[in-house]
Design brief:
Order of helices and strands: HHHHHHHEEHHH
Shape: globular
């Protein structure tokens, strides 16, 4: 239920912001707005707006499939607001390094729920490393997807030039793993056991 509410809210706000530049500017992560005006809500609200329809669709599509599973997990270990707590924390944690690195850069902006979605995907992967995940139309084990994702994101973060916040993807992924293990430490030995037993999907 929380997953669907997040998707609904994000879709509505993003679609409205596509045609309302003022709303986009009010929600996007813009460092001077935090340092000068203390608009700290932007550490979360940036995840409600997206660059275009494709950006929005990919994030919400991934959130729908992995989010429902992880919502069940976090509800069981943290209660009914567990997944919402995880999601909001992922938004903040994934963007903080980018904000701190650009806090004096008035030309820097970041938007989209990709960091939080990365957190959800990696939380899912540590629970089910051999589950089938599609990279475009290519099926592969979740753990292989994770490796490719990290390698690509590290490379592109260093290379730059594509207007994508790969740093947020990486920090979101790290948050997803750390938070999940912190909430249920038994997840880690279970993950290591599963990794040692390769499975065909």
């Amino acid at each position: 239920m929380i997953t669907l509410l997040i998707i609904l809210l994000t879709c509505v706000v993003s679609i409205v912001a596509f045609r309302n530049r003022r709303l986009m500017d009010d929600l996007i992560l813009w460092p001077p707005a935090l340092s000068r005006s203390r608009e700290y809500y932007r550490l979360v609200s940036y995840g409600l707006v997206h660059a275009d329809g494709g950006h929005l669709f990919f994030n919400m599509f991934s959130l729908y499939f992995a989010g429902r599973i992880m919502e069940g997990f976090f509800t069981s270990v943290m209660g009914p607001l567990g997944f919402l707590t995880f999601y909001i924390g992922a938004l903040v944690f994934s963007i903080l390094p980018s904000y701190l690195a650009n806090r004096r850069n008035a030309g820097y902006r970041s938007l989209g729920a990709s960091g939080a979605v990365s957190a959800i995907l990696f939380a899912f992967i540590i629970l089910s490393p051999w589950a089938k995940i599609y990279l475009l139309i290519i099926p592969m084990p979740a753990i292989l997807y994770a490796i490719l994702f990290v390698v690509y994101s590290v490379y592109m973060d260093k290379r730059g030039g594509d207007n994508v916040n790969h740093s947020a993807h990486l920090w979101g992924a790290a948050y997803g793993v750390i938070f999940t293990v912190a909430m249920n430490p038994a997840v880690l030995p279970r993950f290591l056991s599963l990794i040692s037993q390769p499975q065909l999907f």
